[in-house]
Amino acid sequence: MTPTRQAAVTSAAASALRGRTPRRSVLFFAFAFAVIADPVSSVAYAIEAALRALHGDLALLLPTMSLVIGLVVVVTANYWQLVRRFPQGGGAAAAAARAFGPRWTFLPIGALVVDFVLTIGISIAAASSAVIALFPALAPARVPLALILLLVVVGLTWFGHGGRLLFAVMTVAFVAVSVTVLVLGFVTPHTTGHAAATHNPGHSAVLAVVLAFPVAMALATGVEAPSTAIAQLGQLDDTHRRRFGRGTLALLVVIVGGLTLALTALAVRLHIGIPGTDSTQIADIAHAAAGPGWLYGAFQLTSSLLLLAAASSSFQAGPGLLKALSGTAERPGVLPPVLGRTNRHHTPYWSVLVYLAAAALVIVAAAGQEQELVLFYAVAVFVSFLVGLVAMARFARQERKPALAWVNGLAAAAVAFTLVVNLLRGWPVLSMVATLLIAGGLYVRWNRAGRPTGIEDIEARAEAD
Predict the structure, then answer these.
(1) CB within 10 Å: which end of the chain, N or C, has fewer?
(2) b or e along 285-314 (b: 16 or more beta carbons within 10 Å of the residue's beta carbon)?
(3) Where does the chain cross the membrane (predicted)?
(4) Number of other CB atoms surrounding residue 237 within 10 Å
């Protein structure tokens, strides 16, 4: 965190501790709506991903997304427990280390490194698709457009962090415009589509939903953010950090769940099926609901800006994690010190370049198509989810809370099933391979460095720096 951002958080936190409720509300607004930018932005492509997995069977879309939201609630409940146990941040990495030993820290860390790359790639690609849906003439330049947007985001990151308030405003703007579109769509839609809204009787509905929902679990990415981001609130005590973390998780479920189910229901109502090559399903929903006027333009603009904000957030978190792993003069690191070097804007520029190269490679390989990346996206972070759930189940058993242990165990089984189904689709196994290679490499370097202590708190340190 830069001195400017730290000062802003410190000032607001100090006011909160003095009992000044308005300042505390402003701090919570900036924190919560910025942290949930990633999962809210996932709405832009997760619904379409489910429909494509259903082969356009619109009648099964709402049951599929309802199942997705149910599992998001389950995963969120686990992070609710993590916030209670680790109010100073740390997330699944801290839970794994304390439950199974520090060596297990590297599995969720490896998953997060991959997840940050994919978040940048899919967010930039989805933002490009949103722009192309508004300006179809740009379709032939999809990949160059995506790379230009990537460089813009990198440029903003390179010259310092603008603070979380801007991300919060983008999230609120998208939610407000989306609600307006939804109201118009349900009350006075501009037009309707032509997709069939009846299930194909030649296929098993249950099997189709079970096989399709894991793809749309990309919607769950970002759920882990509040449990680690509370480390930024350095001047708040543990009680207030828990409140901020849990309040953010509750807000995440309400907004992401509400928008997802409402947009899905509207897609079914207006018969909006798989989009053409120059559009997205969410853009087609907005166009059918509001028509081609200013509201449709505002919807595309706010969604693209929100997606860029999600990419920017990962461009801060990812290099921040590499910087924390590189260590300091007082604390030995796992990665080479060069990755921790910062410019005068406190940006770890070599780490930023690592993520720039990786994200550019991902975007080019996917031809700038976010739907090509969804399957990969719903793999890496689920490794972190699974480790966190298993760790919390172990804690519950140790504390003789059998009911909680069963709940966490069943949730871990559901997450494991989602992970396996996505891996069986073929190419997404590359995300798992990358996660395991990074985790293994970090573990080897940790051993060679003499197993420096404090590795279990690396996520919290990355957020607090």
Answers:
(1) C
(2) bbbbbbeeeebbebbbbbbbbbbbbbbbbb
(3) 26-47, 59-80, 106-135, 141-159, 166-186, 206-227, 248-274, 294-315, 349-368, 374-396, 403-421, 427-444
(4) 12
Q: Are 272 and 61 contacting, i.e. CB atoms less than 8 angstroms apart?
A: no
Q: Which amino acid is at 35?
A: V
User: DSSP string of 294-346?
Assistant: HHHHHHHHHHHHHHHHHHHHHHHHHHHHHHHHH--SSS--SS-GGGG---TTS
- Asked if 134 contacts 315 with a C-beta cutoff of 8 angstroms, the reply is no
Taking the chain, what is the end-to-end CA distance rounded to the nearest angstrom? 5
Segment 295-316, tens digit of pLDDT: 999 999 999 999 998 898 888 8
In this predicted structure, what is the pLDDT of residue 454?
78
H-helix or E-strand containing 84?
helix 61-85
**Tokens for 143?**
């990949």
Rg of the chain over Cα atoms, rounded to whole angstroms, equals 21
**Cβ partners under 8 Å of residue 312, min gap 6:** 153, 156, 157, 167
**Please, what's the b/e burial string for 42-76 (b: 16 or more CB within 10 A of its CB; e: otherwise)?**
bbbbbbbbbbbbbeebbbbbbbbbbbbbebbebbb
Query: Each residue of 400-455: pLDDT tens digit?
Result: 888 888 988 888 998 899 899 889 888 889 999 999 999 999 999 999 888 887 78
Percent of the residues in the chain that have a pLDDT greater than 70, as a whole number: 90
Distance in angstroms (rounded) separating the CA atoms of residues 47 and 261: 9
Tokens of 35: 């942290």
d(CA 233, CA 101): 27
pTM of the model: 0.90
- Where would I find the H helices in 163-280? 164-187, 205-216, 225-229, 238-269
The yes-or-no verdict on residue 231 having pLDDT over 80 is yes
